[in-house]
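seq as requested:
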Amino acid sequence: MVLLAAIAVGGVTPALAQEKLIMVLDSSGSMAGQIESRAKLDVARSTIRDLLGKVKPTTQLGLIAYGHRRKGDCADIETIYEVGKPDGAAIMAAVNRLNAVGKTPLSTAVRKAAEQLNFTEDKATVILISDGKETCGADPCALGRELKSKGLDFKVHVVGFDIKSDERAGLQCLADETGGQYVPANSAADLGAAIYKTIEVAQAPAAAPEPEPDPVVEPGLRVDVVVSEGGETWKGDIGLKLFGEKQGLDGKREKVADAWRVKSGHIFKNMKDGAFVMEVLLADHRHIKRTVQVDVRGNEAQIVTVNLNIGQVRFDASLAEEGEALKHDLGWWVYGPKEGLAGKRKKIAEFWRVKSGRVFWLPAGTWRVEGAIADAKYLRVVRNELTVQAGGGDAHAFSFNAGTVRFDASLSAEGAAFKGDLGWTILSQQKDLSGNRKKITNFWRAKSGGIFLLPAGEWLIEGVLADHKYVSLSQTISVSPASEAAHSFNFNAATVRFDVTVNGQPTGADLGLTVLGLEKDLAGKQKKITDFWRTRSGAVTVLPAGKFLLKGLLADQKEVKGETTLELNPGDEKPVALDLKNP
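struct tokens:
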């Protein structure tokens, strides 16, 4: 199966308008079957190669594949090419790596495509090319109804590729329920023609707007919802609630009518005369709510127009000014422009784990916007004044001013990568008046080779072996916006094994071991490096390089003790013998 999803973002200014296609390639086991002496997946590859030349220059393209890695796994779905400017070589390299081995979760794939295309806010079309039915228990027919009811303007066109007659019904229903087309293809030539036909439909200019609802000609209250004063009708789902005007002692009003996931133009019938309070909520943008007063005359046909007074914004995020779009998940918070007496601002909206380039609806006005990288919340941006025009659409670029680093850790210069867990703390270079450094963030139980995002600047990195915290280091690094750099950290340490005997004989008793520096301070004391309690002979640990005094005793016979000196070089792996004496 090959699945293509298309969208033309409507109702926005040219700055935001864009067209996107997502191909979802089904590499299920049935795609290994043959048609005209060729594997169906090979036919699909050739078709995609030809299709790339027919995609509009303004179209952004992405690919999702499933069933290509594991047998019997309905969750085997992977984005193999992020939505962006089509790179034919990269796309075909990704497609050529696919193998037809898995199941056919076509409903999950269609849903994933719809969600990636932001189908509740934007016009979206999915083109599904399938050689068989759903094999992961979902109901394509029910999915079609659900997505159609939630979508702003959503369709699924289905190309049935060498489909058996008894497997067509679900795919036909998916297309029918969403207002799409079902097109059969029984050969390689048919497949190319069918895909081209549906691509033409998906990339066709948007149809003229539907006419406004006819005037109310029977008694009732019609609610028309518009984006801005004199602007276009809101096409998404809305929720409506009508309350009595009077409030009870608890401050609440009696609800007299409601409607959920209806469209602009909804009519309330059999209303009584009176004054009411009406709440209008955007079902898929619940931070947008308007409250209006309504005087109802039950025996008349009335129209009330609710102006949402909203506009669209697109938030584009990168690591550097004019840099590439950030692929990480993002969080955005929109606040009022002024602080209250408690020093806090009113939160207008929040969007979590969204991608760069996402389009949002916001109330008209001037707002403070704060952004963060979802998995690196210490990286934030702030825009103190961002203006939203009612009915307008503007793109806003945010630079997180950060770079990507890789931390490679070893126990000696040019030694092998350390395999244990690590801890990293990122501190400012400069100290405050109290002599303290500001902590930027920390990473705990990371591995050597771990990749992190850090703000641009000069930083002090404190590293520690997570299970040997007495082995640590400090090192400064520099990070530039959008840079990618690997940094090596040498912990200057050795691996040792304690081989303990008692009067020359092996022992399995519990031990207490203490590692001390050889040099004494002015008070005649030796610095304790670390100790180990109730350990056993043969225990392996990591110690800093250097010269040390090792003292030991039996945990339950403390009079049985001994000591020895040891010298360790960076990267050493050596046994240390210690014989305890029983007086």
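The helical segments are 40-52, 88-96, 106-116, 140-150, 168-177, 188-203.
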